[in-house]
Design a protein that fits this description.
Largest sheet: 11 strands, antiparallel
Number of domains: 7
Radius of gyration: 34 Å
Helix content: under 10%
Strand content: 35-45%
Distance between the termini: 49 Å
Oligomer: single chain
């Protein structure tokens, strides 16, 4: 069996390779009950451990990831920052930079706390032995050339011999020597002398905005290293009123004019051309440091947890050193219920002591907490933890372990992993393996897989029904590697879920409907991978059948239960089969439909153009060509390969939407009923254009859709569209959206949901989002009452409840989570601004950004390019999916680089179209301002259709372009967009950045 490199970040237990590391088990009194522990050898004496715990205090999980590193010649510690101290970057982007330099990134974590406005780190930065930023009295971790670490306070002091003498008042001349307050720190008005280098900011200046004295020097000898001296030549003495530029080999000694004349006059009197000598000292041991990064808090000192640490359960990043010199890089995720809640600093300190650390420091945490590693079967680094922001945060600096990336080509061992480590007994798992060479680089190689129990078929392991731990081994040429799969026979609980993964305890369905249910099993608070075949499904009551995969088919009205069981545990769903609920036959929202393929002169295809979709995001496009069918009638037909059954014991009609082509031809449904087949029932005479809702009677025996037919009096071609086919009753059409009433109450939001025709909707038709992302909720299928959590961090957030009935109508209601009393907007010019909350939310969600000066400029008109970039980020589209798109715009070269990927994606999705110029060519006009009507149309195209609409009562409604009317009608009905205080809409007015922020926020 031959297997090549697999792109997976699963982990494996390699005990035989780890013994020399002396790694302890995951047992933790600090974090809770041990659930799982997973160790992966990343490189020489460097190991990743992923451990999961159950916190009984919070009734939730805690997930930690840590890298344990014993200093060695193969793996080197390194500190990185974004080129300059104010340039933030993610751990992943920094890793890519190291990889481009030829390193293999073994592991990397985020570094120091920093000023969120400027990006400046609070503490020290040393890179390649050079002091980039002084410590400001804070803690730090430093690495020597041999990889060993030192933790504590660097205590860096810098004195500057300014190269001239002054009379001290006694007639004797004394050398003018002054202390330097800080290196590359924000200059405090009365702080004395600061030193700036080329690495301070992106503009390579001092960054000062207040008047002061700057002495510009060139380094002629030595370096800015702890325990050394540097000789400077004075190039200029500047009475500076703005920032002073700094060259690569230059430094600036700077003092604000508000500082004591002891400092300012000392700098003013420095002779140009003279020599300044800097002397840098530090606490013992720090003069050997090649790399260092600061830390705000000390967690562990002399093997004991520091007292008085700040409280708060958050994601954390820490670093510690054991008694034998082993370094621990530690992260614990947080703010994600069901994955990890985080921990207070004191508990992290306790955990570091449990891991053997005698000294430990707390690095930046919260949304900054990130750990990336290069998995054994990969060549590039990937994030292994789950950052609480939903993605990586750009931070000020990073700690890395790197190794050479040159392969040896000599096989060392195999890296083996399973796609799931914990499974319900009898379930299948997929095994992958990769050959690893002696330099810990993946290599091509064949191997044989064997299992200690169960059966192996190719790379698929079927675990034994009897359960137990199964060791799967890859071996070849005397080398091997293993992983362990835990097959659980008796889960702690079983839950039934619908197609949206919502838990189901009650089900209300119509006869003839098919509902797909899945079962999930939990063991020791962890979800087990479970195949449908590992469960047993049964039904009570004469209501229908359920197959081995959990698909319930309702056959007759009544009540009963569905029960799923495994390993002595079971879960029961109370089922009501009702005659009152309409049934969606086809909504054309999937990738396949009952109307697909080609027939006799008739072709079907799925259509997603918003202008020819009535409900949802898709419809069916029917292209036909009429030809003489031999009976004197011109016809085109399509016949289904498989009939779609409709139970006429309950339903008596089909309703559907038809987009006519005005041809006057007749559209018919082909069906079979009882013993009769290939019957035709007229749907509509196509004497109209646009959408029309029609009803087709199905009275009689059970009804099976077989196909479609178009008939006419003459040959010809045409195109019609179909949407939302619903099994209904004679004269029952449902065009009203479900009603949703929200009631907030403390940390809970309650929603009452009802539908005028369908009554209580099933849970599968309901969703709840927090800032656009799915949120868990509980729902009663008997009462239609939903509850969901409202636990906030004090920033702007929005909860939206959405319900869709069987006829495709969508109801929606949103709740704006109150901000904390001390919440302050991010941007200086949105404080007190009407759209501040909307702007802040979109900023925190990485949908919109401000300007370098800390402003957002909300009243500035938004250009088409800016709009495209903002909407692209809001939709979360993947750049790679549109990389090969060729844009048709004649002004393609004018589209800014930051917006090009967005324009490609939005053009492909039919959201932006461009406009035709006087020369007949298509233009995007990236720098043009966007009107409110244009913005409403483009934003509206991102929504599914089916929401409520209202008649527009704006005083200038008559001037709203036809292309924008529907989108403005539905977004006004939803409260997404509104008019002005004078009752107008102003469709041709330019839309501002603030208005755009509100619209995107309201769409959440």
């Amino acid at each position: 069996m031959k297997r090549f490199l697999r792109k997976t970040l699963s982990l494996f237990l390699a005990v035989t390779l780890l013994c020399s590391l002396g790694i302890s088990a995951a047992a933790s009194e600090a974090l809770g009950e041990d659930l799982t522990a997973k160790d992966t050898l990343l490189n020489q004496q460097t190991q990743l451990s992923t451990n999961v715990f159950w916190s009984s205090a919070y009734s939730d999980l805690r997930t930690e990831n840590l890298v344990t590193y014993m200093p060695n010649a193969a793996v080197t510690p390194m500190i990185t920052f974004g080129g300059t101290l104010t340039s933030r970057s993610t751990v992943s982007s920094a890793a890519k930079g190291l990889e481009a330099q030829g390193y293999r990134v073994v592991a990397g974590i985020n570094g120091d706390f920093y000023n969120t406005s400027t990006g400046l780190p609070i503490g020290i930065v040393v890179s390649q032995g050079k002091l980039i930023s002084s410590d400001a009295g804070y803690y730090a971790i430093g690495f020597r050339a041999d990889g060993t670490a030192i933790l504590g306070k660097p205590g860096v002091k810098i004195s500057a011999d300014l190269g001239y003498t002054l009379d001290d008042g006694t007639g004797f001349a004394t050398q003018v020597i002054r202390n330097v307050t800080g290196v590359n720190k924000a200059r405090v008005s009365t702080g004395g002398i600061y030193l700036y280098t080329y690495e301070f900011n992106d503009r390579h200046t001092t960054g000062n905005t207040e008047a002061g004295v700057d002495v510009l020097c060139t380094i002629v000898d030595g370096a800015l290293s702890i325990g050394s001296t540097a000789t400077l030549r004075v190039d200029q003495v500047i009475e500076a009123t703005a920032a002073t530029a700094i060259g690569p080999d230059q430094v600036v000694l700077s003092a604000n004019n508000l500082s004591d004349v002891y400092y300012t006059n000392a700098l003013r009197n420095v002779p140009v051309g003279s020599t300044v000598t800097l002397t840098l000292t530090g606490n013992s041991g720090w003069e050997e440091v090649q790399y260092a990064v600061g830390a705000l808090y000390s967690l562990v000192e002399n093997g004991s947890v520091v007292s008085g640490l700040p409280s708060g359960v958050n994601p954390r990043t820490a670093v510690g050193v054991k008694g034998d010199g082993t370094v621990v890089f530690y992260t614990i995720d947080g703010r994600k219920s069901g994955h990890s809640i985080g921990a207070p600093m004191t508990q992290v300190g306790q955990r570091m002591v449990e891991l053997g650390c005698v000294t430990a420091l707390c690095l930046d945490g919260g949304g900054s907490t990130t750990l990336a590693v290069t998995a054994p079967d990969e060549t590039t680094a990937s994030t292994v933890n789950v950052p609480s922001d939903g993605g990586e945060r750009s931070v000020t600096n990073h700690l890395f372990l790197v190794a050479p990336s040159q392969p040896s080509g000599q096989l060392s061992h195999f890296y083996v992993s399973a796609d799931n480590d914990y499974v319900l007994a009898g379930s299948k798992v997929t095994i992958s393996a990769a050959a690893i060479d002696t330099n810990y680089i993946p290599m091509s190689g064949s191997y044989t897989l064997s299992a200690s129990a169960g059966t192996m078929e190719g790379d698929v392991l079927t675990t034994p029904a009897s359960g137990g731990d199964v060791t799967v081994t890859a071996s070849s040429g005397g080398k091997s590697g293993s992983t362990v799969v835990h097959a659980i026979t008796t889960p702690d609980s079983i839950t039934v879920r619908d197609s949206k993964s919502n838990a189901v305890t009650a089900l209300n369905v119509a006869p003839g409907s098919a509902t797909t249910l899945t079962a999930s099993a939990v063991y020791r608070h962890l979800a087990l991978k479970a195949d449908p075949e590992a469960f047993t499904w049964t039904v009570t009551g004469n209501i229908g059948t359920v197959d081995a995969k959990g698909v319930f088919t309702a056959t007759a009205p009544g009540t009963g239960t569905i029960t799923v069981s495994a390993g002595g545990k079971s879960a029961t769903v109370n089922v009501t089969v009702s005659t009152l609920t309409l049934q969606t036959v086809e909504d054309f929202e999937g990738t396949t439909t009952i109307f697909r393929g080609s027939g006799s002169n008739m072709d079907f295809s799925l259509n997603h153009s918003a202008d020819t979709v009535k409900l949802g995001r898709g419809s069916a496009k029917v292209d036909y060509t009429l030809a003489d069918d031999g009976t004197g009638t011109y016809a085109a037909r399509w016949q289904a390969g498989n009939a779609t059954e409709i139970s006429n014991q309950v339903y008596t009609a089909l309703s559907m939407w038809v987009y006519g082509d005005g041809s006057g031809n007749t559209l018919s449904l082909l069906y079979s009923s009882g013993a009769q087949g290939d019957l035709a029932q007229d749907i509509a005479v196509l004497d109209f254009t646009g959408w029309k809702q029609v009803m087709v009677s199905t009275a009689g025996e059970d009804f099976a859709i077989q196909g479609l037919q178009v008939r006419g009096a003459a040959a010809g071609t045409g195109t019609v569209y179909l949407d939302q086919i619903v099994a209904t009753f004679d004269n029952v059409l449902d065009n009203a959206v479900p009603q949703i009433t929200l009631t907030p109450g403390g940390e809970t939001l309650t929603a009452a949901i009802s539908d005028a025709v369908d009554g209580v909707l099933p849970q599968s038709s309901i969703s709840v989002t927090w800032d656009g992302a799915a949120q868990n909720f509980t729902y009663s299928a008997d009462s239609g009452v939903l509850t969901t959590s409202v636990v906030s961090d004090g920033k702007p957030h929005r909860i939206t409840v959405t319900a869709r009935d069987a006829s495709g109508n969508i109801g929606r209601a949103s709740y704006d989570v109150p901000t904390a009393a001390d919440w302050t907007p991010v941007f200086t010019d949105t404080q007190g601004y009407w759209a501040a909350a909307y702007v802040d939310y979109l900023y925190n969600a990485n949908i919109t950004t401000g300007y370098a000066d800390g402003t957002f400029r909300p009243d500035q008109n938004i250009t088409r390019a800016q709009f495209a970039a903002m909407l692209y980020r809001y939709l979360g589209l993947e750049e790679s999916a549109y990389a090969d798109v060729t844009l048709p715009f004649a002004d393609l070269a004018s589209i800014p680089d930051y917006a090009l990927a967005a324009v490609k994606a939005l053009y492909t999705e039919g959201i932006i179209n461009g406009s035709t110029g006087s020369d007949g060519r298509l233009y995007f006009n990236p720098g043009s301002n966007l009107t409110r009507a244009q913005a409403a149309t483009m934003i509206g195209r991102t929504q599914a259709k089916g929401y409520a609409t209202v008649e527009l009562t704006f005083t200038d409604a008559g001037s709203i372009p036809a292309y924008a009317t529907y989108y403005i009608q539905t977004m006004v009905a939803q409260g997404v967009i509104s008019g002005y205080a004078d009752g107008s809409f102003k469709p041709q007015a330019n839309i501002t950045r603030g208005q755009m922020a509100k619209i995107l926020y309201n769409l959440m």
